[in-house]
Write a structure and sequence with these properties.
UDP-n-acetylglucosamine1-carboxyvinyl-transferase, Chain; 24 strands; globular
Length: 439
């Protein structure tokens, strides 16, 4: 699919998309809870659909209700009866990095061998930590040289363990949920150099909402499990998925550079790491009014800013789009977190935005962007990365001339309504299906 973006001025109001970080965690919690759970404001991105498919494959009954909410009914993962809790020995996480890292330890609770598959860029992402960590917890791991597909045979047995948290917090999320599901007691997960701490806050918040035995968090270095909670039934759980700060960040940046808009559904008190976009917008001098109800953005003169994205690396793409229109040299730290995303995002941002005339320098863990000189319309490629497609679309709103985004359907991974929402706000966007030639 090719999306052609015309220079546009925006106005009007829009609802932020549902958070796939919140949605996928809710799916995992619903699987390991026993009984019924109700998930309101569910997302419908490809990653969200993959999470629902995983829990269904592992035995949960999933039903979409007439009001759009999701009802699940699960017996949990039965450690005593191999195969009882799941109807399939193969699950597919799609292209979801969170999905594979979070669900693997949960799936490993089963005695029955389960093979985890994936699609697209997920097939090339390294999964060495499964081979390194899970065998210490009584799990047999068979992988494709550290990549998918991976077959796990448990059951995982909680114990004191030490892990490296410098690459991702997502595997820790899965371990925390798996330990809770296995009624861990008196054991500690020790974490060195944990990144993306706010995402662990979100994990613990979801666990508590579903009545799971959330551990004591000791300065993000130790997570200690005391006696498990008893007497909880999932039928008591009604969980509302938060608005998505990751996707919402693109809307907010679009408002700062291309028009006066109002975005609903983003909670300023959320545990999501990407709410830090507000700090970047303030530092850039964007006109903004924030309330519990909505966030209003006004165009104005933007200035260069300094930002540390180590704990929120998904903000790099919208931050680059913002920095392109900020006069001066913007500095963003945390580039090392970008190597194993859907693309190598540091290099991809440099190359694709370079086509639009933006100079981006990469030096070790730092990205420097020389902004404020204007962008030119160009033909760019999503690299099959949803956030690259959205960043290019937002930047194109004030470029000189139209911009064509190839493989623009990459947005379906996280925000399938993105182009429609920009159009609602007044953006000129034309969509054309690409023709595939097979020789």
């Amino acid at each position: 699919m090719i999306a052609t973006i015309q220079p546009s001025r925006l106005s009007d109001t829009i609802q932020a998309p549902a958070s796939k970080s919140s949605m996928q965690r809710a799916c995992a919690a619903a699987l390991i809870s026993k009984g019924k759970s109700f998930i309101y404001n569910p997302g419908h991105s490809n990653d969200d659909k993959a999470a629902l498919q995983v829990i269904a494959a592992m035995g949960a009954k999933v039903n979409q209700l007439s009001d759009g909410s999701i009802e699940t009914d699960s017996t949990g993962i039965d450690l005593s009866s191999p195969g009882k809790a799941q109807s399939s020995t193969v699950v597919n996480c799609g292209e979801s990095g969170l999905g594979i890292r979070m669900f693997a330890p949960i799936i490993a609770l089963s005695k029955r061998p389960v093979t985890i598959q994936g699609e697209g860029s997920l097939l090339s992402r390294p999964m060495d930590f499964f081979d390194e960590i899970l065998p210490r917890l009584n799990v047999t791991v068979s992988s494709n040289k550290g990549r998918l597909p991976i077959t796990l045979s448990g059951p995982l047995q909680p114990g004191d363990i030490e892990i490296d948290g410098s690459l991702s917090s997502q595997f820790l999320t899965g371990l925390l949920m798996a330990y809770a599901a296995a009624d861990a007691k008196g054991v500690t997960i020790t974490v060195n150099n944990l990144k993306s701490k706010p995402y662990i806050d979100l994990t613990l918040k979801v666990m508590q909402a579903f009545g799971l035995n959330a551990p004591r968090n000791k300065n993000y270095e130790e997570f200690y499990f005391e006696a498990p909670i008893t007497g909880h039934t999932a039928s008591q759980t009604r969980y509302t998925v938060e608005g998505d700060w990751s996707g919402g960040a693109f809307l907010l940046v679009a408002g700062a550079i291309a028009g006066n808009i109002e975005v609903y559904g983003l909670d300023p008190d959320s545990a999501q790491a990407d709410k830090k976009i507000l700090a970047a917008l303030r530092d850039a001098g964007a006109g903004m009014e924030v309330s519990n109800k909505s966030i209003k953005l006004f165009t104005g003169k933007l200035k260069a800013f300094t930002f540390d994205a180590t704990d929120c690396p998904d903000l790099f793409p919208p931050l680059v789009a913002l920095a392109a229109y900020c006069s001066g040299l913007t500095t963003i730290k945390g580039v090392s977190r970008l190597a194993h995303k859907e693309s190598n995002r540091g290099l991809t941002l440099q190359e694709e935005f370079g086509k639009m005339g933006l100079i981006i320098d990469l030096e070790k863990d730092t990205m420097r962007i020389q902004g404020g000189k204007g962008l030119k319309g160009a033909t760019v490629h999503s690299r099959h990365d949803h956030r690259i497609a959205m960043a290019c679309a937002v930047a194109a709103l004030q470029a000189a001339g139209e911009t064509m985004i190839e493989e623009a359907e990459a947005i379906n991974k996280s925000y399938p309504d993105f182009y429609d929402d920009l159009t609602t706000l007044g953006a000129g966007i034309k969509i054309k299906q690409q023709t595939i030639h097979i020789q």
